[in-house]
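Researcher: Let's try something more involved. This one mixes different molecule types, so please make sure each is placed in the same coordinate frame as the others.
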Amino acid sequence: MLRFADAGLAYAGVTILSGLSFALEPGSFTWLVGPTGAGKSSLLRLMSAGLPPTAGHVEILDRDVARLNRRERPGLRRQIGIVWQDFRLLAHLSAFDNVALPLRLAGRAEARIAEDVAEMLDWVGLSAKMGSRPAALSGGEQQRVAVARAVVPGPRLLLADEPTGNLDPDTAERIVKLFQEMNRLGTGVVVATHSHSLLRRYPAGVLRLESGRLSADG
Amino acid sequence: MASRHPEQALALPRARSDLLAAALVGAMVFLASLALAGGIAVGQFAARWERGAGALLLVQVPDPASPSPEEGARLEAVLQGLRGLPGVARAAPLPAARLAELMQPWLGSAAANLPLPALIEVKLARPGPDPAALEAMLARTAPGAQAEDQGAHVAPLLAFARGLTALAACVALMVGVVAAAMVAFAVHAALAAQRATLDVLHTLGATDRWVASAFARRAGRQAFLGSVIGGLVSLPVLAGLAAVSEPVSAGVAGLVAMPALWLPALLLPVPAWAVARLSAWLTVHRWLRRLW
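Model: All components are placed in one shared frame. Result:
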């Protein structure tokens, strides 16, 4: 699913990630942990084909990222769901339209989109707010919309950056269980978190980053 | 609630630069309409001159009643000779009374008593007669007779008119280039303002084509609306110009009846729409290259 071989990332001459070598098997569930500034978000960006590595090789869903041409990259990205730490909802779109966005990008029929999005929003408990714009939603509600947007297309790989950070314990539990359910259905999941309790309650593989490198116990 | 089109999904906010671009495209279409209408009107006048004075030949026959070396009077012999020449559509002598009337301002009442040469008005076909054959015929039938090609007087005017028409076309072309540049500038500003949105779309797997299509549709629609307004505003101005040019245009009715004069104002929104779409499309594609 993900294969990094001595991969690194530098930006404006500053090395952010280096010497990353690991492989995550299809259908695996992995926690990505590390202190703030360790490079977790940058690593998730590499994993989402948001950037090419500046060193080494990265394979995502069996595709060598560096070899993908401009026309091939969007197709790969559409197989990856991502929940950003800062949600990145489009402020001028309703919750419904935000969640529908990846389906529309994939060219899904509107009738099917309406059905799937309504079901997804119902699942995250936002049926009553599907017409609301992000500014009218609380932080937790925005996070649930972001999760719904990442999950609704049924991605092969799901990446999440602190997806439960703004959620109450019950909702956080539901979200993690959703990820696990997707994982059981074959979706590979990588979740960046600071929550030790999540790691304890849901044991899985761990990638531990420190100063842009995988630590020995990672 | 559900938006179906990329542009709606993008839901680009109403940017001032968009409105400004629409207004400027409208102004450009207004100017292009006037330039093209002016060029077309001048072209029509030139064609009219070419068909009129440009296709006229005046033959002067001194001693018209004297016998011709060939047969009959000199005037009749020249007329027969002209009518037999290829390239001559019609040849008719100017009545002596009319000739005297034309000469009166210079010669006064004496004009009627002076031995004036006869004048033959010759309407030329296309192509006209061979000049050498014409000269030979005149020398044979009425030595001393002269042909004066009116087209020679019209030629510089026609060249000037054609120059004006070409200039109008160049102005319209330049206006199109400026409009395309303005659309590109507005789209660039909108892209910069939408950077965060575009980053999200890019990461979610939006293709360059999808994003470009959204911007191109919007730019095309704005340019179309702006240019329709610009074209409509140009119509009363054109009518006013037609009225002002009445003394040289053979009447406003003649100008107003020229569909070609009004067509630029009515048709320019279509190329404006196409140019705006193309400009936006190319600008977006170039801009997106900065996203990996």
